Amino acid sequence: MNKRINSLKRLFKAILTSLKVVWKAAPGLFLVRLLNEIVLAVLSSVVAYLFAEVIDRSVEAINGAPVKYAFIATAVYAAVSIFSHLLPIIDSNFLRRVTMRVSRYIDESLMGKLAGLSVAVYDDPETQDTLKLVLDNRTGIDVLSFECLSIIGSAVRVMAAFLLLLTFSPIAAILVIGLCVPYFIVNNKYVEVFYEFDEDNSQNMRKTSYIKSLFCEPATAYDVRVCVGFAKTLQDRYSMLRRDLFDEKQTILRNLNWKNLIFSNLFLLAVGYTFAVSVQSVSKGALELGSVYYYVSLALLISESMKRLFRQATDINTFSHTILRYRTFMDMPSETQTDEGVDVRELESIEFRDVGFCYPNTDNWVLRHLNVTVQKGEHIALVGKNGCGKTTIVKLLLRLYDVTEGMLLINGRDIRCYERSVLRKLFGVLPQEVNGYSFTFGENISMAEAYDEALCGQSMDFAGVRTLHAEMERGLDTPLTKRFDENGRELSVGQWQRIALARAFYRQADCMVLDEPSASLDAEAEYALFNNSMKLCENRTMVLISHRLSNVRLADRIIVIEDGRVIEDGAHAELMTENGVYANLFRLQASKYSNEEKKRKENDGFTVVEA
Fold first, then answer.
1. Do 158 and 305 contact (CB within 8 A), yes or no?
2. What is the architecture, at CATH level 2, of domain 2-332?
3. Among 24, 551, 51, 567, CA closest to 289
4. How far is Cα 191 from Cα 196, in angstroms, rounded to an integer?
5. Among residues 351, 385, 350, 338, which one has the least CA distance to residue 366?
6. Tens of pLDDT, residues 194-242
7. Which residues contact 86 (CB under 8 A, 6 or more apart)?
8. Could you give phi then psi for residue 608, rounded to 5 degrees?
9. How far apart are the C-alpha atoms of 357 and 369, rounded to whole Å?
10. pLDDT in tens, 97-115
């Protein structure tokens, strides 16, 4: 019982939410469609009454009454019938317009919300499932925009016919309603079953989508085809998942079909009863002949409208989870909603004061008791083993996440005081994982449709992509990748990384953050990159993260991170003198690179003779 009550509550919530969405998307069309639905609902009973009048006046004319009354009744019936048939055609035009408006509104609202959400929400599997259910059933919201108004029309149609039939036979009216209810209960039950099926299998459905994407995405298509047996493994796994999902759903549908057949026709008993009672009344002279048609038509109208209303309720219930998940998703706090709006023009200092941090939904401390201060214009390097928290420090600086404990101060104030969008303008970042976009060369540097060509030129010089630019016939207007243009230019990983570096420089930020900037560069390009970075960032703050210690020695300070805290801090010469972790790592790398160089020369036909 509680489950059914909760289901009804969710149904009404879904209808109200859908009505609000339609109202926000197209308030004028909302009112027009609502009026059309109410008028059409009332006309259904009016048309039945008018046809009954035609029958009665025709019978009277046969019995000697003036024929003109029969003609008048027929003319009125014909006019109203024509109008009742034209109105849905007119309404369908409004419906298409409403659906288009709602579709655009939903798409734009989802895009706006996705753009404003914190990165932290994507660490939550439940949020991922919510987003998948909303996006996969996106068209369901369009269906609701139609059904939420149509169900009002169906309800008015049922109510009007019920009240009219009630005046003749309360038993017939109640019986028609009562015999339609089991149909709704059965269908509503299976809506719940289907939703539970989708919810229980959301992870498996995500897995099938993921496997499918591996065959389609350029980044993974190479491995799928080159790694022998990988494609077959993926196909088998995909088929197994889809087969299990199909078999379970097939069982649900099989059980639904036979129950649906029985309960959808129970209303005929009530229609038969109404017919018998009305014929009996006519035989006694209490009613005219047309009343038999009228009251039977009302019974049929109630049952058909009830079934239509239940189908609409079932459709709404089917997608109620989608619209309610959409509402939940839209109610998630955006980054802009939590900003206090304090402005910041320049970066004077950065201070991590006893900072601790755990990623959402974990208890593992990535950083603990971290204390670091960076002054304006300093060039610092963060070094340490993989997983020690170097990249996490950058994410906290950009306020992709907030610290778990301690304080992160910018210019002596808590970083949470600043508006995120303004704060991030202070940083030009080359992330560890570089993304390339299917836009033009210039847009990939500026990350905007309009860009400053002179600044793009300086950025290209800084990143060493001027030669690449010169090779392109359309210059900055050259589309990158062939996703949308067959004449687009495909780039290597190293070229994409240089473009990302140009992108970081283009921002003209107070602080440059380079997270493993030389990972895909050769030794010559790496050397040029670090020299250019130091020169061009002479008056700016710079944070450098790199495993190649031969380059970080150029920094003013080298900060060694271990287990989420600072264990060494100083210039290259100081740390080498201390002979600690940094010195050992530096000598180990120097020895490794020396041996690799020796082997390379030997393979080239040279013999290295040590002094």
1. yes
2. Up-down Bundle (1.20)
3. 51
4. 9
5. 385
6. 667 776 777 777 788 888 877 777 667 666 665 657 777 788 888 888 8
7. none
8. -90, 120
9. 9
10. 888 888 888 888 888 887 7
Expressed in percent and rounded to 5, the helix, strand and coil fractions of the chain are: 65, 10, 20
The amino acid at 339? D
**Neighbouring-strand partners of residue 418:** 342
Token match 């798409």: residue? 107
pTM of the model: 0.65
Q: Point out the least confidently predicted range of 296-305, 372-381, 442-451, 527-536.
A: 527-536
Tokens 């283009």 map to which residue?
506
φ and ψ at residue 151, rounded to 5 degrees: -70, -30
Annotated domain spans of the chain: 2-332, 349-584
Q: Quote the distance between the C-alpha of residue 499 and its chain's center.
A: 28
How far is it, in rounded angstroms, from Cα 515 to Cα 526?
A: 13
Q: Are 72 and 58 in contact (CB under 8 A)?
A: no
Would you say the CATH fold of 349-584 matches that of 2-332? Answer: no
Q: What residues form DSSP beta bridges with 512?
A: 428, 542
Radius of gyration of the CA atoms of the chain, in A: 36
CA distance 287 to 297: 15
φ, ψ for residue 347, nearest 5 deg: -100, 115
Contacts 24+ apart (CB under 8 A), 6-12: 7/188, 7/191, 7/192, 7/317, 10/317, 10/320, 10/321, 10/324, 11/313, 11/316, 11/317, 11/320
- Which two tokens mark 598? 């020796």
Can you tell me which residue has the tokens 């998942």?
241
Name the 3-class secondary structure at 481.
coil
The domain 349-584 is classified under which CATH number: 3.30.300.30, 3.40.50.150, 3.40.50.300, 3.40.630.30?
3.40.50.300
